[in-house]
Amino acid sequence: MRTRTCTAAALAALLVLTTGGQAGAAQPDGPQVYEVAGTGSAQQRTEVARTGADILDSTGGTTTVIAGPAEAAQLRALGFDVKALGKVDRPQGAETVEDFPAGYTGYHTYAETQTELQKAVANYPSLTKLGSAGNSYQGRALSLLKISDNAATDENEPEVLFTCNQHAREHLTTEMCLRIVQRLTSGYATDSAIKRLVDSTEIWVVPSVNPDGSEYDISGGTFHSWRKNRQGSGTDTNRNWGYQWGCCGGSSGSTSSETYRGTAPFSAPEAKAVADWVTSRKIGGVQQIKTHIDFHTYSELVLWPFGYTYADTAPGLTAAEAQKFQTLGRQMAATNGYTPQQSSDLYITDGSVNDWMWATHKIWSFTFEMYPKGSNPGFYPRDTQIVPQTTRNDKAVDILINAAITG
Ligand code: 7B0
Ligand code: CA
Ligand code: CA
Ligand code: ZN
Fold it and tell me: So what's the pLDDT on residue 88?
């Protein structure tokens, strides 16, 4: 189990202090941050998650969540000791985006991310090809960069997928995808290990699966702790994938919940677009994509399927396959110092991307929960952390690419 520390300093980034009538955009009956005691086991955390509360982290038997009033009431009714820490700031007016706040301007906005991808194509035309998996709810392109020798040609090489920023506020993950692009392109000419990986595979990178949410999270020049997409009250795209959707108490059916699963599998255009694109990589009956990492923050974990059940094996996941997930997950974790575990060791999630990728396509699909370990600084590390915390995953990324080659 992950252990994390929760400090007042970190929470300050998340909260609107409600004391002294300070002006803030928090709604009176809006979501708040709570500490829930007596939640040391995965089963207890699943009970918490089942209410629709959004689990931020858990340490020493206490779990920090964002919950609406109804969810908080439900937690109390379940007998948990629930302590309110403060309200979450959510903008209600126009959603305008200029840039990240001071101290964070090294992060890439949507427009800046697009520019980075275009620069990669301009600088490395034979190694890259820019495309899109489709559009977000608000119509932004879900850009997709291919990296390979002869990138313009669909060669018969194993394919690898990296996806980032399903969750809006997890901005460090967008930087992780951009790091992969930058390192594999700029290192190609001089680094023989990179050349080998790039020559023998076709690597696809989606820096933002949730650009609408990401832009909303930084709108108006402050952070808003936003997680979901921007369809209605928001769907958690990582509860909207079409395998065992809504099966097991690992998501919520309530629209206001942070883990709202949507009205149907793939009702979120972002999850549907990426899934349809992955399905389109099944050619002549053979799925081309062999390995995948979906980057998230935070907790420093390497997670593998299934998330919907505590069981180590299940229909469609044999003991030998579970063993291989574990071996590969541990190998990667040994390079970055993260904790390797099955996804449900954290809490049950249903409709998450990894379960669908594995069950539907037999893609060796992992979630990485990046820096930090704990809620300080939570979702919002300063931009000085971008280089160290993305570089930290270079070796794990190479292992994942190599795993597509070796099978
Ligand atoms: C989530 O805090 C997903 C594991 C999927 N197999 C973990 C992820 O969607 O709950 N954690 S997070 O929200 N980034
Ligand atoms: Ca190639
Ligand atoms: Ca191919
Ligand atoms: Zn996430």
Answer: 85
Shortest-distance Cα residue to atom 9 of ligand 1: 238
- Quote the ligand 4 centre to 369 CA distance (angstroms): 7
Handedness of CA 267, 303, 358, 215 (dihedral sign): positive
Q: How far apart are CA 202 and CA 150, in angstroms?
A: 9
180-209: pLDDT as tens digits = 999 999 999 999 999 999 999 999 999 999
Distance CA 396, CA 303 (A): 13
In angstroms, rounded to a whole number, what is the distance separating the alpha carbons of residues 342 and 324? Answer: 12
Give the number of domains in the chain.
2
What is the DSSP-derived secondary structure letter of residue 249? Answer: S
Query: 4-56, pLDDT tens digit by residue?
Result: 333 333 444 555 332 222 233 445 678 999 999 999 999 999 999 999 999 99
CATH number of the CATH domain containing 18: 3.30.70.250
Q: Please indicate whether residue 303, judged by its CB atom, sits closer than 6 Å to ligand 1.
A: yes
